Amino acid sequence: MPAPPPADGPVAVRISALDLSGSPRLTGCDADHVRALAEADPAGLPPIVVHRATMKVLDGVHRVQAAVLRGESEIRAELLCGPEKESFVHAVRANTAHGLPLSLEDRKAAALRILREYPHCSDRSLGDVAGLSARTIARLRRSTANGPRSNDGRLGRDGRVRPASTAEGRLRAGHLLREHPGASLRDVAHRAGISLGTAQDVSRRLRSGLDPLPDRLRADAAAVRGRPEAHARAAAPEAPRPPEGLAFLRQDPALRSSDAGRALIRLLSAHEAVLATGAGPASAAAVPPHCVPAAAEAARACARAWARFADELARREP
């Protein structure tokens, strides 16, 4: 979630020009808190924060009401630019971090609004803004199933895009471990698009005779595929196998005896990860947004080169 551009510095604004409807507080101001602020030294209070385009007060509604109670007509304010939805995120973050805390209902309502605007952001990053746990955000996200969603990936606090659920990656890892029980867990994690820790958990579950998916993730797997949960396990995607011809080429003495032949085997072997995972949504979600055009063009260039190679071989077929 982008932050609104920083203000130039506090300025005096007329209270009559302010719009107090920008606050995330559902029940309005707390009268006792307003009276306590009215008795405090105004110089010791921070400036309020206002969205410049709409003059909505994002942070400091209680300070505005206290200034009115003191009979003042102006108040110090920082004016923020940018879209109103970004400014609302700032308001929620500010009201959660200091002053009179937002109530639980206020924070949940604010989180639902931010979810509608930023469905691609991770549960943890949204929870940091609203002062809620990632698990609470996940429950709120599921409650908005008919609203905008982003199932391909989530933008985390560190700016990296990750798969929305580990369910698909766990299924791929389970398939790889069954097919290649001696495979390195680090390699399995890379091919499946999951963390090493998740791959280790999948391996432990398989050794214990359990499903790669914990109960809490089975619903996610069904939702990603758009199928009833009862069919989730039956619908587990089969990872494409490397073609039998690749094993034949590796063992053929005529090909292995030349530098060019060995180079071809190495090139084909390097693409086994693509063949094993199908280069699906998890791989695509791992590409940062600013790298998408370059990655797509590189993939297309590789595909064109291999297509020309295959066409040349086809012309040589007896």
From TrEMBL:
<feature type="region of interest" description="Disordered">
    <location>
        <begin position="141"/>
        <end position="168"/>
    </location>
</feature>
<feature type="compositionally biased region" description="Basic and acidic residues">
    <location>
        <begin position="151"/>
        <end position="161"/>
    </location>
</feature>
<protein>
    <recommendedName>
        <fullName>ParB-like N-terminal domain-containing protein</fullName>
    </recommendedName>
</protein>
<feature type="region of interest" description="Disordered">
    <location>
        <begin position="225"/>
        <end position="246"/>
    </location>
</feature>
<feature type="domain" description="ParB-like N-terminal">
    <location>
        <begin position="11"/>
        <end position="96"/>
    </location>
</feature>
<dbReference type="InterPro" id="IPR036086">
    <property type="entry name" value="ParB/Sulfiredoxin_sf"/>
</dbReference>
<dbReference type="InterPro" id="IPR003115">
    <property type="entry name" value="ParB_N"/>
</dbReference>
